[in-house]
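Lecture notes, continued. The same structure-token format from the folding unit now serves as the input rather than the output. Read the line below as a description of shape only.
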């Protein structure tokens, strides 16, 4: 759980609430206890003063009863019991005066008031005394704490579907179009999940329609291209025949590239991944590029074997070769293949922008009639499907287009 997570924030807020309430209850407990003690002291002070005045004949018995009216204080008359209580009780507070003294005693959870003068002594038991209400305070705190915990659990359970929705959205972002986040709830989170589910379904329908359209278009185009190719083959040898055959071969290559785009961008992924020798794939890529052997120089290790989709991977290599020859000064490309990296090197000017700019379809540089078409766009997506990295660098007048992390494709 990261600190930016909503679950972390809610947990933190509830924790702060619990701590705050706990501190507030501690303060309330101390304050209430002091107030309760002050009330007892005032009560005992009134009774002690009135009793001392009565014992010293300053007030009459009727005045005494009037002053202590409402206070349930019972005199302990048994001398033995008096002595036992006085000897074993805890003295809470004692006050002395010229007319006598008074002391508050605690014995077996009861409060007693001992009043003494020079001539007499009394021990009064407080019949109204109740121990401080610790249990009540603890009960209140327990109830509040329980309510907060229940509220926290209910809140977390309410927003828990957000985690599932986030996982589904992450999966969708990675190309998984088969996610299902439909819910039966009616709250806002459920509404968002259902809206996202409906959007995914709509995207799937549009994707399927696009795939069907592209496949139909490619199928319909292949028929006239094939007929045209056959017709061109029947012509007599000559420039016209060679030019027509080359044109139809180029059209076939374009149709195959469209098929590659459709496979990669539709989320179908890699279908026919098998181990192939890199040199065989390079030979196929050179044949697809339809270039002269003098335009290619290969420096590679023959024992390199990679688990790839043969058609897609050779298409990616062919596109980089085409791009290198098209924009090189000498119309040549050198290929250096090692276990971890394959570099396509051509002499030429450096790119004006970052590589990411050229990975979009039909990119054109400023004031230029030359378009990069779909070449690097296809390369990028094919390598991404193979979990490889496509990088670029310019050194000493040469452009380097690299396929990185080739070793991750080696058979186990």
């Amino acid at each position: 759980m990261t600190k930016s997570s909503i679950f972390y924030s809610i947990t933190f807020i509830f924790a702060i609430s619990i701590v705050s309430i706990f501190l507030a209850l501690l303060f309330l407990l101390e304050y209430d206890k002091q107030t309760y003690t002050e009330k007892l002291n005032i009560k005992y002070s009134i009774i002690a003063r009135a009793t001392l005045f009565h014992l010293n004949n300053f007030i009459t018995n009727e005045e005494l009863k009037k002053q202590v009216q409402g206070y349930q204080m019972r005199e302990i008359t048994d001398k033995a019991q008096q002595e036992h209580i006085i000897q074993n009780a805890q003295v809470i507070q004692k006050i002395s005066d010229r007319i006598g003294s008074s002391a508050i005693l605690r014995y077996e959870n009861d409060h007693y008031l001992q009043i003494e003068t020079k001539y007499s002594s009394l021990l009064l038991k407080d019949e109204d005394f109740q121990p401080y209400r610790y249990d009540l305070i603890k009960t209140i705190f327990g109830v509040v704490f329980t309510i907060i915990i229940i509220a926290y659990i209910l809140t977390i359970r309410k927003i828990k579907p957000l985690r599932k929705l986030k996982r589904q959205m992450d999966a969708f972002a990675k190309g998984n179009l088969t996610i299902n986040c439909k819910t039966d709830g009616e709250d806002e989170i459920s509404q968002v999940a259902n809206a996202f589910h409906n959007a995914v379904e709509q995207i799937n329908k549009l994707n399927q329609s696009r795939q069907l359209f592209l496949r139909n278009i490619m199928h319909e185009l292949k028929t006239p291209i094939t007929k045209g190719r056959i017709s061109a083959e029947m012509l007599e040898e000559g420039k016209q025949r060679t030019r027509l055959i080359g044109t139809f071969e180029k059209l076939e290559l374009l149709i195959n590239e469209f098929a590659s785009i459709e496979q990669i961008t539709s989320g179908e992924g890699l279908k026919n991944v098998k181990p192939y020798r890199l040199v065989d794939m390079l030979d196929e890529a050179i044949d697809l590029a339809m270039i002269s052997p003098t335009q290619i120089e290969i420096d590679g290790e023959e024992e390199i074997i990679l688990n790839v989709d043969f058609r897609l991977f050779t298409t990616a290599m062919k596109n980089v070769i085409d791009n290198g020859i098209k924009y090189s000064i000498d119309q040549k490309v050198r290929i250096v293949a090692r276990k971890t990296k394959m570099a396509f090197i051509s002499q030429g000017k450096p790119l004006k922008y970052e590589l990411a700019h050229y990975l979009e379809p039909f990119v054109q540089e400023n004031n230029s009639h030359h378009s990069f078409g779909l070449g690097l766009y296809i390369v990028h997506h094919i390598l991404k499907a193979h979990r490889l990295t496509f990088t670029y660098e310019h050194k000493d007048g040469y452009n380097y287009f690299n396929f990185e992390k080739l070793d991750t494709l080696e058979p186990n």
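Point for the exam: The radius of gyration is 47 Å.
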